[in-house]
Amino acid sequence: MTSPQAAPTPPLPPQPPGSEMFVSGSLHDMAVVLLLLGVGLILAVLLWPLIKAIARRIEGGAAGGEVQAELEDLRERVRQLEEMKPRMLELEERVDFTERIVAKGHEAVRLQK
Fold first, then answer.
1. 3-state secondary structure string, 89-107?
2. CA distance from start to end of the chain
3. CA-CA to 14 of 20 to 30 Å: which in 31, 39, 65, 88?
4. Residues ≥6 apart with Cβ < 8 Å to 57
5. What DSSP element (H or E) covers 112?
6. Per-residue model confidence as pLDDT tens digits over 70-89
7. SS3 at position 49
8. How far is residue 1's CA from residue 77's CA, in Å, rounded to a whole number?
9. Which of 70, 67, 71 is nearest to 56 (CA)?
10. Rounded to whole angstroms, how far apart are CA atoms 54 and 61?
C-alpha cells in the first residue's frame, strides 16, 4: 500500500502595500482606541450640560425670558422704594421732634424735684 500523499497547499496571494495596518492590529492598539473612545464619551456626558447652557446663553433662549421677568420685578420694587423715600424722611423728622419733646418733659420733671 502506498501512503496517500498530502495535497500541496497553494501559496497565499501577496498583500497590497499598507494593508498590514488593518489586518494585523494588536490587542494593545485596540485597548488604546477603546480607552480613547471611553474617555471621549465620559467627557461628552460630563460637559453636555455646560455646552447646553453656553448655547442657551448665546441664543438668549428660554432662560432669557425668566431673567427679563425677574429684572422687571426688581425694577418695580426699586421704584416703590424710591416713592417711599420722602415719606421715610418725614417720619424721621417726626421721630426726632417727638424725642426732643419727651427729653424736654424729662428735664422739666427733673428740675421740679
1. HHHHHHHHHHHHHHHHHHH
2. 154
3. 31
4. 63
5. helix 62-112
6. 999 999 999 999 999 999 99
7. helix
8. 114
9. 67
10. 10
Rounded to whole angstroms, the Cα distance separating 68 from 108 reads 60
> Which residue bears the cell 425694577?
75
- How confident is the model over 14-25, as pLDDT tens digits? 877 765 555 456
The alpha carbon dihedral of 21, 23, 29, 34 has a sign of positive
Residue 60 DSSP label:
T
Give the list of residues 6+ apart from residue 63 with CB closer than 8 angstroms, or none: 56, 57
Pairwise CA distance, residues 32 & 103, whole Å: 88
What is the value of pTM for the model shown?
Answer: 0.36
pLDDT at 23: 47
